[in-house]
Amino acid sequence: MKEYGWLDRNVASTVSRPSLPPGRTRFLTDEERSRLLLECQRSKNPNLYNLVALALYTGLRRGALLHLRREDIDLKNRTLCIPKTKNKTMLVLPIVGEAYEIIKALLSQNGNDLYIFPGQNTRGRWGSYSSAFEQAVKRAKVSKFSFHCLRHSTASYMIQAGIPLYVVGTVLNHKNPATITYRYAHLDTSNLKGALEILAQRLEG
Hints:
Blueprint: H1 30-42, H2 48-58, H3 62-66, E1 73-74, E2 79-82, E3 91-94, H4 98-108, H5 130-139, H6 148-160, H7 165-171, H8 177-180, H9 190-204
Antiparallel strand pairs: 1-2, 2-3
Helix pairs in contact: 1-2, 1-5, 2-4, 2-6
């Protein structure tokens, strides 16, 4: 209409946009996690378990894991480094628990490969794992679960353990750890019980 001189601005621009619904936050229960890891171990892809386990231990995004280079690993100090994350920042994470043994084993394999996770096909590095992951999820009977939900699981487990939201956000490399990680806070309210019980004692005292 503007080209005919009928309107001097786009009327649609004056209409408020509806708020977008929050992203789906799906995480593994302990039982689901056990079933999924077992099926990953049974997979014909020898590195599927390693990929899924490291995702749970680190909270790293799929792309960061698949492009983790040998030079990014410091076994002596037990750290890994993501030089440039999705948020354009560097992230250094400690390597703890079984994650250390997994990474150590991966480094001992495929010594000529730049990345610790081998694999490349016409669909990119994830294409070497996507089908195996989907099949493992199906066999484990874990519904509506994507690889990114492993990251949600890491966040929820830390929050349920009482780890401060800011720390969880830092591990996940959220752009604004103090606020974005609140999307996970509803996953468990047990950490709020103690605070409210103290309040109740004051009110009832």
